[in-house]
Amino acid sequence: MSTEKKSLLFGGSFDPVHKGHVHIIKAALELTDYERIIVMPASVSNFKQKARGVSGQHRLAMLHLALDNIRAEGRQIIISDYEIRKGGVSYTYDTVKAVYQLFQVKGTLGFLMGDDLIQDLDKWYHYDELVRLVDFVCFTRLGSHPAAPAGANVRYYDIPPLVSSSSTVRQGDLDLTEDSVREYIIEHGLYGTGKDC
User: Fold this and answer.
1) Which helix (H) or strand (E) holds 58?
2) Rounded mean pLDDT, 97-118
3) pTM to 2 decimal places
4) Cα(40)–Cα(98) distance, rounded to whole angstroms?
5) What residues make up the domain containing 103?
């Protein structure tokens, strides 16, 4: 039996995963017909090359804690360690090509992104080739649909905003994380926390 599935890639630093990420994944399950969501933390994001975050293993562990109990109703949520194992800077174009090799993708791979990235897509590495490989799935938080560069196939979905960011968590607001992730952060003393916090 074929294991081909209509697949959606959700990449990022996830340093750490927070409630906003979980909100987006749940919205993708509710609003789209993708059968598989591949969550792939970057080793080093191209847009955050100077940032020094926690290890890939910690970020993977927190993703499992945050996502393993999401009800996918017969669909798959896969947390891939491909980029963490590969190491180095992660470029979307290279990652997308790897996803086609690693997974049996039905049709065109979806690439999940926020509306704040749409306008600068044409500045991405190998943009002209990338747009032939993916459909961009854009979740808009304010109901606006920013214009995409020429060649990009973008599907917009409006979702209720959930204000949350990894940088705010790193600054100490652990209420923006799932309970299990918060406990993990404290237990391992990440982001300046400790077991006595």
Assistant:
1) helix 56-67
2) 94
3) 0.90
4) 11
5) 7-191
